[in-house]
Structures are given as structure tokens and as C-alpha cells.
Amino acid sequence: MITRFAIVPPVPALLVKYASLTDPVAELRVSATNVVAALTKGAGEVSILGSDRYAGSVGRSLLEAAEFTGRVTRDAPVALVMANGSAKRSQRAPGYLDERAFDFDDAVDLAIRSGDPQRLATLDAELGTQFWASGIDTLRDLGQALDGQWRVSVPYADAPYGVLWWVGAWFG
Questions:
Q1: How far apart (Å, rounded) are the C-alpha atoms in residues 26 and 166?
Q2: pLDDT beyond 90 at 52
């Protein structure tokens, strides 16, 4: 049973191998590393959950940056949920501009900030796929498995490249 989890985007720019002299995601990197460090403090095991092809590698990179020394396992009580909003929020976004993406992202944002698993459980993963969002199915499935009210912190929510990224944490 998951007792706490972080939501972080599976952004390849967070991987060390893509680092450069000028970090294009510096604020995101600091926020994600800090949340992962706080979440994993004292944890012996962590799960990385997400359907994006970069979920595992970005999750492990963030764990390393947060100096996590435990194990990555399938059913840990602490999890990194690799998810992001739509990639269609501007004309320069990877999926170009789709005005409907804003309403979708607002619904996901409300679900993330609510601390209510039922809100996560109602997320539309199929619509997420249409808007090039990642991990919405994982958030939905997690919401279906959890109950009660959770404490939530969302220190980062921004779309600097037309893709909405959240860094947040839920504590049971």
C-alpha cells in the first residue's frame, strides 16, 4: 500500500546525459530533486510508476540526484509517479496548440492539488493521450487504489515549453 508519492514529469532534459552548460530546466530540476529527497528520506524502497518511455530512467536519475540509497522495487510504500500534462499548450509546443488542452490540464491540476484520490480516479487517460500527456493512466489507476484524504504540496507547476509539468507530493 502506497503511503506517500511524488508526481514528477518524465522529462528527458532531467537526465544527466542531457546536461549542458546552461540548464534549460534548472527550476524544474531543483524542485523535483528536493521533492524526491524529502519523499524518500528514511525510505528503504521506492517504486517508479509511469507509462512514458523515459519514466524509469528519469526516475532513477532523480533518485540518484536526491542521494537515495535504497532499492527500486515494484510494490514499495513510497512511489515516484512520472506524469505530465498536455504537450499542446502553445504553437511552439511539441504537439502544437490545441485550445482544449487547457481545460484538460485544469482538470488534472485540480485532481493533483485536491488530495482526493477520487478526483485522480476520474481522470480521462484517453483524452490525455490525445493531448500528448503522460502518466495520466497511472494517476487514474493510483486514484482508484487509494482512499481517504491526503496532504498535498505542489511546489512547481509550469509549462515553459508548451508542456505542463508538475512537481508535487501526496502524504497519507
A1: 14
A2: yes
